[in-house]
């Protein structure tokens, strides 16, 4: 129940619907019992067993409830019979039954009507909080987790919570109250018979509970496997070109089919165990009814301590207990199954974000002096990828980072943007440790253009517009012109309103990169970070993109991570990295004169170009 309590906090904004649901359920339970009790006067009239009573009965306290109700009904029927024929009295009794069932079903509808707003509201808020948490968590979290598993938690696990946990909210009041009111009525009719019935309930309850003990474990396996095959699907869609190019369809199909086979087996095991709930509880219920028929029949036929009409009414009440008892039994299985889903959802919600803000962070709106990287060291796992690294990037200067793959160039971009936190040392902007800045203001000072152009399945206009909220069309067009993107955009079928497809796949690599640059230009940040922005482009596209980058970097502070050295020859400082350490730094001309690591990189690229 611990997970249930944590999920219930999402119901607080909708407590008015919960209150209205409880009120409706109280009346539903009451009229459910009265609907069954109303059979008794009809049976009395039908079998002509009504005792003639001409004096209105007196109320003698709760202990005399059964006799008072019976005598009051007989008095009323006697009065009506004297004034009209028996057929009219029978019609009145039938009308009473119809009215009771009408009120029962009216309140049942109202209860479901109000709980719908609560359930769907919780579902909405839970998904929204999960999405916010998904965005808030650092990039390092998703380098360890499968994206498909996260998707499964936001979709199927949240739905499982709705179907299992939140369905209990409907039962918490209605079904127990229905049972309580029914038992009160049964005790009023025959305490002896009711006591006999309840000797069997603990036994049947114990046998039913044995079935549900392994449901959480089985449900956990089902949900984990669902996350796994969704991950395979997500990877397949993302890498479809490579899969087709390498004829690897069968390899991925085998992985997917193996996962769905495990999902098939786990689901069968879970559902078959769950499906035992209803027939088992119904069987024990009918067995109890059979015992009541035998024992109650003895009281009617042999002992003659119970009237036949009351016994039939009692049997109807007994059977009425079966439905809520079955619902409660099914709900208990739902809790066990929902526990696994809630655990997976809460795992995300309760994950601590290591990239946290201090209590009162600094909101830095401008950049005036320098980015100062002081003696930092960093490791993703066990080995340090940066060791004792220091660098000063003054305002208006361009600093380029070069080196072989794995030398730590892109890591610096991840650390300055605070996608990761340094293990040792500090990174300061205008003398302020970036850990003391609010993440929003830090990233407001930075623009990022990466090697992989990350675009979204939306229009050109909306993709560029991410760089600035509420940007005007003129601002978007101006940014596109600076990035050498305006001409090709105007050639698209709908210009700036053209949808570019998933990840911008309707565009070429150069076009995608120029849109990314347009987005950065529109943001107009004082510090620009370019992470190998031209390395994946052909010569013509590179020239257009490089021209766009130079225009964008003019009079701006820039950290350029370069693969192609031809693109950074005009940088104010070039820093050469090797295995996370600075081996050389200077201008292009100075580094060539040193005839060291930088010269080797230039010569290698000359040979390959």
UniProtKB/TrEMBL annotation:
Residues 371-604 form the ABC transporter domain. SMART domains: AAA. The chain crosses the membrane at residues 16-40, 89-118, 171-189, 195-212, 283-302. It holds the Pfam family ABC_tran. Keywords: ATP-binding, Membrane, Nucleotide-binding, Transmembrane, Transmembrane helix. One of its GO terms (molecular function) is ATP hydrolysis activity. It is found in: Cell membrane. Coiled coil: none annotated. It is a multi-pass membrane protein. Residues 19-337 form the ABC transmembrane type-1 domain. GO terms for cellular component: plasma membrane. This is Antibiotic ABC transporter ATP-binding protein. It comes from Maribacter hydrothermalis. The lineage of its organism: Bacteria, Pseudomonadati, Bacteroidota, Flavobacteriia, Flavobacteriales.
